[in-house]
């Protein structure tokens, strides 16, 4: 026997109570505030009636009229039995939590915090309005029988709980908004937002990073993907721990130091010859002890061999030439060729450290043509 939906059980129960036609059902549903706890529109009443009738759970009684809405229906014996069985089951079984707002919260990272807070505030206002409406409906029907009182009590409790949840969540967002959040891209725009038209010389101070070393083609070697995962899992563990201590920060973009015995390997994209050190910047207040604790916590969640290789790297690049590259990573070669073989010789500059790239987009979510990469080369006078 097919299970009854909430709408079907509601209509069937009203017909078990006593025979009714469509308009009577609509009146009772509206009067009792049924729509505060089940999705049952006026037009769907007749759809549900047809379904119940085809299953033999209700039947039309009395004289037929030309208006379908005036045809009275009553529950059959089979309908009474299934209604009773479904009611026993529904009374005893806790309902799963399937509120759509949970899906929204799971995806809220895609929105600025201010937009999430605004949406929650709008939801809270709507919930308060619904609660006021429900209480008005209840007051108009007092005194209520025990079952009806239980329905209203439950509906009010659920709305009050949702309002309390919205209050708590909004308070958390307000506190986080008030908390200063460090973002290296904003704090050091000179280093993370260069021109895409011209090479520029910048002075890069001493900075600290989470770092993992490796060798080979990043597109083919699992050691590279392990390294990136280890960096992000550790960085986010640090973020949440620091936030709990009252200092929040935005996890910086993935960065990489690239080197090869023959520098033409970069221009020619011979990736199998590359050595690399993948990086994520650290706020200055994060200590080595905090990093070790974060690595240990990340290792508890997932066994990743790169976590054992993760270290804190202090890097002082000093004078560096950089430019913003737009487009696929494999299209960097002409820009690097100009840097190595035209700009640097013309300005009397020599290499003074590893080629440095900063990946401002997530390649998993960004079209190759829209990727933005900072290309940086530490230099010294010849």
From TrEMBL:
Domain Transcription regulator PadR N-terminal: 11-84
Pfam families for this protein: GyrI-like, PadR
Record-annotated GyrI-like small molecule binding domain positions: 201-379
Organism domain of life: Bacteria
InterPro entries: GyrI-like, Reg_factor_effector_dom_sf, Tscrpt_reg_PadR_N, WH-like_DNA-bd_sf, WH_DNA-bd_sf
Record protein name field: PadR family transcriptional regulator
Native source organism of the sequence: Glycomyces artemisiae
């Amino acid at each position: 026997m097919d299970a009854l939906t909430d709408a079907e059980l509601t209509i069937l129960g009203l017909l078990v109570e006593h025979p009714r036609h469509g308009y009577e059902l609509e009146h009772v549903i509206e009067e009792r505030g049924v729509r505060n706890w089940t999705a049952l529109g006026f037009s769907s009443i007749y759809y549900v009636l047809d379904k119940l009738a085809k299953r033999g759970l209700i039947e039309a009684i009395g004289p037929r009229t030309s208006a379908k809405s005036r045809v009275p229906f009553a529950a059959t014996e089979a309908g009474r039995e299934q209604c009773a069985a479904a009611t026993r089951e529904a009374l005893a079984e806790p309902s799963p939590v399937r509120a759509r707002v949970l899906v929204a919260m799971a995806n809220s990272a895609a929105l600025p915090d201010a937009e999430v807070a605004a949406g929650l505030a709008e939801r809270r206002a709507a919930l308060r309005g619904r609660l006021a409406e429900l209480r008005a409906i209840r007051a108009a029907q007092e005194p209520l029988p025990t079952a009806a009182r239980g329905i209203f009590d439950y509906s009010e409790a659920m709305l009050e709980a949702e309002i309390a949840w919205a209050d708590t969540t909004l308070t958390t967002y307000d506190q986080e908004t008030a908390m200063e959040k460090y973002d290296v891209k904003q704090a050091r725009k000179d280093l993370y937002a260069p021109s895409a038209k011209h090479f520029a010389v910048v002075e890069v101070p001493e900075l600290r990073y989470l770092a993992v070393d490796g060798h080979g083609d990043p597109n083919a070697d699992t050691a590279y993907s392990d390294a990136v995962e280890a960096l992000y899992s550790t960085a986010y563990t640090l973020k949440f721990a620091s936030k709990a201590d009252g200092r929040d920060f935005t996890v910086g973009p993935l960065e990489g130091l690239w080197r090869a015995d023959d520098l033409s390997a970069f221009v020619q994209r011979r990736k199998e010859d590359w050595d690399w050190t993948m990086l994520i910047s650290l706020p200055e207040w994060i200590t080595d002890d905090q990093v070790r604790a974060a690595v240990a916590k990340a290792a508890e969640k997932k066994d990743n061999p790169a976590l054992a290789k993760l270290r804190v790297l202090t890097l002082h690049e000093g004078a560096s030439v950089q430019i913003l590259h737009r487009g696929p990573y494999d299209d960097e070669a002409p820009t690097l060729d100009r840097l190595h073989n035209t700009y640097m010789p013309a300005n009397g500059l020599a290499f003074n450290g590893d080629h440095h790239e900063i990946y401002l987009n997530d390649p998993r979510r960004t079209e190759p043509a829209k990727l933005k990469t900072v290309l940086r080369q530490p230099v010294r006078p010849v």
